[in-house]
């Protein structure tokens, strides 16, 4: 638009120049054309006195803002709730209480005796397991001693770590043996775990 | 029972500390069971014992063991106690509501508009859901737990609930003897490599993971006098444990291979050999 105005003013001035001398006033540098756009800063105003104070003021403003931001950020982030520790409201629902039949004396006696029997059984099982493990360790220790007597090199090779062993994976026992060539159906599921971000 | 993966056998890193003399150095000749005078000092130049490496290949249990009577009783008690101390679940609440609604329907002054959340006429009661689930379960046919006594000793699918060890009938000297697969040690290889070679010599192609570099046991025997050459009094066998990775159902010869449980070992092995082997084969 500026260019258009300037060309227009030139056209106008060229047209009017031949008409009257009043037009020549327009060409003087004291009068800027009305049609020309006011693009430049008014050069005739007071000289700027705010050159030093303004940047300082702006800097002060920025610092103040930054300090406020830092104060806000210093607040510790909200802790992520541990879902396992929160008892759901469902558990406090009174309609869910189960009616428990009262136990007879014989039943309580039977339970107490069974628990004692169980603890004895488990203890003996534990002793047997520990003894077996101890025996196996002893056998290994003696084997290594014999090997040391035989040859030092083989002994050192035997003592060295086995890098290929770990990570060790083995499919544990299930209730029924695996069916050969079994195609399991697709298990679709909706994952509703809540993910928290700090 | 939920399946659990990643058993890992504890790595036994045994470090022989002080040089304690081994107690009870046994010298057993293979043919006769007499105990000769103890032979503490090993040979002056080199050792007179030829070394062998043997592999104790185990097939770990595939299914869980059956419960003892005490275990059955206790698990029953535990389930009962858990049930008594629990709250009603959503499904059970739904069952109760359905039952209540049914009983209200039977009454004469029944007004279906009073029902809240009745929905449309089609209702799937919780009982129907249960029946549908039962039907679906019946469609699945799991494999049989026990194969019965159809399988003989040479099959590796024998007793799925126990861990089995592979035995081989080899000729030692002049006799055929059942023992763990063993092979003589060659110079320049570690004993574990000997054991791996012993495994490779089997006709069956099994993939096994060796559990560590250290031997788990050893067995020492003297050759009978007539075979004793100069420089070899007897042999020392070092056993290495290995776990079979994938079940391989290649049929093995009946008379020379056997997959054996721990308590069946005594039917196959000689007493002294059995004594040493029983120490590290675990029936856990």
Automatic annotation (TrEMBL), chain A:
Keywords, in A-Z order: Coiled coil, Mitochondrion, Ribonucleoprotein, Ribosomal protein, Transit peptide
Gene Ontology CC: mitochondrial large ribosomal subunit
Transmembrane segments: none
Coiled-coil ranges (or none): 123-157
Pfam families: MRP-L28
Gene3D superfamilies the record matches: 6.10.250.3440
Keyword Ribosomal protein assigned: yes
Subcellular compartments: Mitochondrion
Superkingdom of this protein's organism: Eukaryota
InterPro entries referenced in this protein's UniProt entry, alphabetically: Ribosomal_mL40, Ribosomal_mL40_metazoa/plant
Family recorded in the similarity comment: Belongs to the mitochondrion-specific ribosomal protein mL40 family.
Protein's UniProt name: Large ribosomal subunit protein mL40
Organism: Triplophysa rosa (Cave loach)
Automatic annotation (TrEMBL), chain B:
UniProt cross-references to SUPFAM superfamilies, sorted A to Z: Nudix
InterPro entries to which the protein is assigned, alphabetical: NUDIX_hydrolase-like_dom_sf (IPR015797), Ribosomal_mL46 (IPR040008), Ribosomal_mL46_N (IPR021757), Ribosomal_mL46_NUDIX (IPR033650)
GO MF terms, alphabetically ordered: structural constituent of ribosome
GO cellular component: mitochondrial inner membrane; mitochondrial large ribosomal subunit
Subcellular location per the Swiss-Prot or TrEMBL entry: Mitochondrion
Domain of life: Eukaryota
Keywords, comma-separated and alphabetical: Mitochondrion, Ribonucleoprotein, Ribosomal protein, Transit peptide
Gene3D superfamilies linked: Nucleoside Triphosphate Pyrophosphohydrolase
UniProt domain Large ribosomal subunit protein mL46 N-terminal: residue ranges: 49-144
Chief subcellular location: mitochondrion
Family recorded in the similarity comment: Belongs to the mitochondrion-specific ribosomal protein mL46 family.
Name assigned to this protein: Large ribosomal subunit protein mL46
